[in-house]
Design goal:
176 residues, A middle domain of Talin 1, 68% helix
Length: 176
């Protein structure tokens, strides 16, 4: 599902190249979700993406939620981890972008959630954001993990932008 972009509409030196590529994908995704009611529409959409688009899509779906606060990092990480396919796809995205620091962060998050017996399936998933406030140790851990996230995040975005520039055909098709 290569997105067609007019050459004049694309700035290859911009710092939000990856975000712009993601926005095109998420628009298509939202249209499909609103038009199709059949089971598996999410999976079919994901399967139609190139490997690079999958990595980009998973990154921004996760990033756009967790970047707001340590509480959101906690809840969305628990939610993703309770969906093994999504958690594996998220890890694969950082492997694709060769982003070892973010992959290590995910492993630390996973270790912390498992240590506190968080669910590994959505069956009986009842995690709330308030639970973080009720557990001082977990709260402190996620404040620390969020600080790591804030520190590595700019480098991650740069790596993703660079990967898109180097493998443009994996993400977009330029039209004159």
């Amino acid at each position: 599902m290569i997105i067609k972009v007019k050459e004049d509409d694309l700035d290859f030196n911009c710092s939000n190249l990856s975000q712009r590529c993601f926005e095109s994908l998420i628009k298509i995704y939202k249209v499909r979700m609103s038009e199709e009611t059949t089971i598996g529409v999410k999976e079919r959409f994901y399967e139609e993406l190139t490997e690079g688009q999958r990595a980009l899509f998973m990154f921004y779906v996760y990033y756009n939620h967790i970047s707001k606060s340590h509480i959101e990092l906690y809840w969305w990480s628990a939610y993703f981890m309770a969906q093994p396919k999504k958690w594996a796809a998220l890890k694969a995205c950082f492997k694709y972008f060769n982003d070892e620091p973010f992959l290590l962060l995910l492993e630390k998050i996973e270790q912390e959630l498992k240590q506190h017996n968080h669910p590994t399936t959505l069956e009986n998933f009842s995690i709330t954001r308030d639970e973080l406030n009720d557990n001082k140790e977990l709260h402190a851990s996620f404040e620390s993990l969020y600080a790591i996230f804030e520190n590595i995040n700019p480098v991650t975005i740069t790596k993703i932008n660079t990967a898109i520039k180097k493998n443009l055909q994996e993400f977009i098709q330029i039209e004159n």
